[in-house]
Amino acid sequence: MKKVIAIFSLLSVVAVPAFGASELSKINAQIKQTEQQNKKLEERVKTSERDVAKTKKDLVRVADRVSSLEEQRSAMAKKIEDLDRQRDKISAEMDKNRERIADAAAGVLFVASHPSFDSVDMQSYVLTSAVLSGAANRFEDEIEKANQQIAELERIRNARAVEKEKLDRTAKKYGKEKNQLDKLLKTRSAQNEKLKNEHSALQKKLRELSARAKSISELSAGVGSSEMSSDARFSRRKLNLPVRGRVVVRFGEKTALGLVSDGWRVRTRGDALVMAPADGVVKFADSFRGFGRVVIMSHKNGYNTVMTNLGDIAVMLEQEVLAGEPIGRMNPDKPEMYLEVRRGNKAVDPARLFKEE
After folding, report:
1. CATH architecture of the domain covering 200-352
2. Do 62-191 and 200-352 agree at the fold level?
3. pLDDT in tens, 228-253
4. DSSP-assigned letter for residue 263
5. Distance CA 218, CA 89 (A)
6. Are 309 and 330 a contacting pair, CB within 8 Å?
7. Could you tell me the residue ranges of all domains in the chain?
8. Maximum Cα–Cα distance for the chain, whole Å?
9. Are 83 and 159 in contact (CB under 8 A)?
């Protein structure tokens, strides 16, 4: 071993002058430069990953605020519409009441201008008094009713002014939050550019699957799901619905067509923001006949969620999405989501997993 080392040392001493020390220093410099470039690349990758993670978290927070504000503003606008209807109804009743008051007043004036108190006929005297008394009472009743209507109209006007002020107050805040959401969605879209290029072939494959599938259940089964485990729980806590609304058809109930529902139908607002119900991966994001635009997400323990009737989709295939991250908006012309949850090849009652609004 010592002889080998000695020979190597001797060759090194002989080789350096022959090969040139400058060439060796150049190689060392190139190695060092490559190492620095790799280090910078690794740092850029880490920074990019951190930026993507931050964008996702920011989207979850802002989407929740935007969705909440949209729901509040929708409720205020509905209340204003209801108050307007009440106001119009009261105004119409007041117009009719004016006519009744005029008739009652005319009756009082007529009796008063044709007194029969000097009549020798007692029956005629009593009758005249009764008519005069009745006309006066009717006149008083109509005046009292008119006063009540005026008070109610004033209450409605005040309530409407309060709701309008609330709506106006939230407009600036909503505009600011909506702008921030739009900016974040654009940022996420730019960050997903690489993903878009990588999955064009997969998109073609899924479109073929969509053409072959006869039902939404077949489509969900065809896109696959996460690996099954012995733990059947989807989450330790109840999940939020992917869209704010009211459940109108439940799992196991019959639909309008007489079929047993494998999921929930959720009545919502047109253009309502749709958010991921849980962390997962987008497995399908495209149109499917009879269901509008559809997003299917794969979650842990073999669960898939199917969300239908979206108007716009804001995610791409194989995109990893956090719970609460925006994935699109509802179709304004069909504001009813069909929400189906599947584990493996079986439909699961969403009541086991989701909180109702």
Report:
1. Distorted Sandwich (2.70)
2. no
3. 877 777 766 788 899 999 999 999 99
4. S
5. 52
6. yes
7. 62-191, 200-352
8. 160
9. yes
In angstroms, the Cα distances linking 182 to 62, 203, 336 are: 10, 25, 24
Structural contact between residues 128 and 110, judged by C-beta atoms closer than 8 angstroms: no
Q: Kindly compute the dihedral angle of the four CA atoms of residues 178, 182, 188, 193, in this order, to the nearest 10 degrees.
A: 170
Please tell me the distance from the alpha carbon of residue 243 to that of residue 330, in angstroms, as a whole number: 8
3-state DSSP of 136-182? HHHHHHHHHHHHHHHHHHHHHHHHHHHHHHHHHHHHHHHHHHHHHHH
Maximum average pLDDT range among 165-179, 210-224, 270-284: 270-284
Q: 139: which 2 tokens?
A: 């006149």
Mean pLDDT over the full length of the chain: 79
Q: Where are the alpha helices (DSSP H) in the chain?
A: 2-19, 21-113, 122-191, 193-198, 200-212, 216-223
Structure tokens at 278: 């849980």
Residue 8 is predicted with a pLDDT of 39
What is the CATH number that goes with domain 62-191?
A: 1.10.287
pLDDT attached to residue 10: 41
pLDDT digits (tens, 9 = 90+) for 253-302: 987 778 899 999 999 998 999 999 999 999 999 999 889 999 999 998 88
